[in-house]
Design brief:
The complex is a heterodimer of chains A (about 150) and B (about 425). Chain A has about 150 residues and is an alpha/beta fold. Chain A is built from 5 helices and 9 strands. In chain A, strand 1 and strand 2 form a beta hairpin. In chain B, helix 1 crosses helix 11, helix 1 packs across helix 12 and helix 6 crosses helix 13. Classes of the chains: A alpha/beta (about 150), B alpha/beta (about 425).
Chain lengths: ~150, ~425
């Protein structure tokens, strides 16, 4: 092998290896995938009233229907804001409640709103905090996983 | 020579441990945000100082933002400190005074000593409120920010407050993107870790507050200092006052867009830090005051960061000299420490800190720029070393320190 070619190959290989870790950096520098200023909460940072008000607005469409459910001692289900499932409880029937919100070890994806005292099955994970007018009891350990800010009350 | 190198390696190791400790604390430790829940209170009277020297490009933005903040109007006065501006700054401020009667009390300074500290010192004589907030003119505060920065002052031990600085002009060029990462590391990890660990969060002189009585107790602003904020941090500490950092109190700023401006900025910071180190270093470590042992040690390490740049360069030169002299340092403890020292400047404790900050900020793509930070690191290490040499020359020749204002890049509105 010609020594010049060998040296050239060595230099190119070394340069390539050195450049390798820089490729993602140069790619990001050119394409600017993440070059916006950090989104800082400018207007409502730490203002609990803002979030409370946002949550009140979020569940506002359910208020009237929930009152009807309480008056008629019935349950109702539907979709809120296009893709959030909800369950309204005007009375709590423990046997059917498990069927509706899920059994132990499962996740309840729905927003549960109750106009009466609520006794929930244990071992459930709620994607959204249950909303109720009366007391809430859990038969055993449960957890809540927040998936969106509107779930914060 | 080998012993000097040994000493330098140990110093670098100390900073390595410090960086990793801060980062791990920030990632896995308990996070202290003691004042974040203060939402409803009998809010005190507050004066917001806006330091402005030839700020026609940006002054209207901050004044507009301050007129919209969520704070009781009768308890809130904005005082633009127009320091000898020769551009349209005065005219713009006066137009805001007319548009918002009673809410802006301008201080047009037409003479006197140059520099931000001197201007703030003169403005202080006109302030009557116990709480003072300070912003540079290129900052854009959100409406909730004022309450957040005032809240810690309900704690009678708190003398100073510092919020988080977030670059606004991130996407302009390579430099602004690198500075965005550096700022994230410095605030999201470094400052918050110092807050968590009850060390010495640093007062940054903007997006910041100070208690008037504390300021009066320590003798007001030091107009001989190039970094009046660092000077203030240490004088508050020595007088027993706490400075707290509020990571959620975020405010946009403009970072330098050219390397020349950046180099001037970092040289001023380096000189100012070193000035404070020379003035208060020994007293901080050994003096009789109320600072705890950990505050003394951390405070000294914080002041030493800019000294480390020339020390590292000397270390590199010594390592070369030792090698060519035939001394083999690569054995035993020196070998181990050398590898650790390499990890500090190369593999990269500070870089780890910045990567952690990017993760905490959920900014996933920008962390890819991390290898390019080496460029910023090299520029900084040379600029800071130049600053140290220039400062030594100034000291020997008795020359006065000169305050350089950071140039603005935003288009005027």
């Amino acid at each position: 092998v010609n020594p010049s070619v060998a040296i050239l190959c060595l230099v190119l290989a070394t340069a390539g290896l050195l450049a390798l870790p820089l490729m993602p950096a140069i790619g990001e520098l050119r394409k600017k995938h993440d070059a916006q200023p950090l989104s800082v909460i400018q207007q409502y940072a730490g203002e609990i009233r803002h979030f409370a008000s946002g949550f009140r607005n979020y569940i506002e469409p359910l208020q009237q229907r929930l009152q009807e459910c309480v008056a008629l001692r019935m349950t109702a289900a539907g979709v809120l804001h296009q893709d959030d499932e909800y369950l309204l409880l005007g009375e709590v029937d423990q046997t059917s409640l498990s069927r509706m919100v899920g059994r132990e070890g499962t996740t309840c994806p729905m927003l549960v709103a109750a106009g009466v005292d609520l006794v929930l099955p244990g071992g459930l994970t709620f994607r959204r905090r249950p909303v109720r007018r009366g007391r809430t009891e859990y038969l055993s350990r449960h957890s809540r996983r927040q998936t969106d800010p509107s779930a914060t009350s | 020579m080998i012993y000097l190198l040994f000493g330098i390696v140990i110093l670098i190791c100390i900073y390595t441990v410090r960086h990793y400790f801060f980062t791990l604390n920030r990632l896995f430790g308990f996070q202290r945000h003691p004042y974040i829940d203060i939402d409803t209170a009998d809010w005190p009277q507050v004066t917001v100082l806006v330091a402005a020297h030839n700020e026609e490009k940006v002054i209207s933005h901050i004044l507009t933002a301050l007129m919209k903040v969520n704070y009781p109007q009768e308890k809130f006065v904005v005082m633009p400190v127009n320091d000898r501006s020769t551009d349209r700054t005065r005219e713009i401020i006066d137009s805001f005074v007319q548009a918002h009667p009673g809410r802006i009390r301008p201080f047009h300074r037409i003479g006197g000593k140059g520099g931000k500290a001197a201007a703030l010192k003169d403005a202080m004589e006109r302030i009557e409120t116990e709480v003072i907030l300070i912003f540079d003119a290129d900052y854009i505060p959100g409406s909730a920010l004022i309450k957040q920065l005032v809240a810690p002052f309900f704690d009678p031990e708190v003398g100073g407050v510092m919020g988080r600085v977030v670059p606004l002009n991130v996407g302009t060029n390579l430099l602004t993107r690198l500075l965005d990462l550096e700022r994230a590391g410095g605030y999201q990890v470094d400052q918050q870790a110092r807050m968590n660990l009850r060390l010495v969060p640093q007062h940054g002189g903007t997006v910041a507050g100070v208690r008037l009585s504390a300021l009066q107790e320590i003798g007001g602003w030091n107009d001989n200092s190039l970094t009046e904020d660092t000077d203030l941090t240490y004088r508050l500490l020595l007088a027993g006052w706490k400075t707290v950092y509020q990571n959620r109190s975020e405010c946009y700023e403009e970072v330098p867009e050219t390397w020349a401006v950046r180099i001037r900025q970092i040289m001023r910071w380096a000189k100012g830090h070193n000035q404070v180190l020379a003035t208060y270093g020994l007293r901080l470590l050994f003096g009789k005051h109320l600072a705890t042992f950990r505050e003394r040690v951390d405070g000294l390490l914080l002041l030493g960061v800019y000294v480390m740049a020339p020390v590292t360069i000397i270390g590199w030169l010594l390592a070369l000299a030792v090698f060519y002299q035939g001394v083999n340092p690569l054995h035993g403890i020196i070998a181990l420490l050398s590898i650790t020292a390499y990890a500090a400047v190369g593999n990269f404790a500070a870089f780890f800190e910045i990567a952690a900050a990017a993760r905490l900020d959920s900014s996933r793509e920008r962390v890819r720029l991390l290898p390019l930070l080496m460029l910023g690191f090299l520029v900084s290490i040379v600029a800071v070393s130049r600053a140290v040499i220039s400062q030594l020359m100034d000291f020997l020749t008795g020359a006065q320190l000169h305050w350089d204002k950071t140039e603005r890049f935003r288009a005027p509105s």
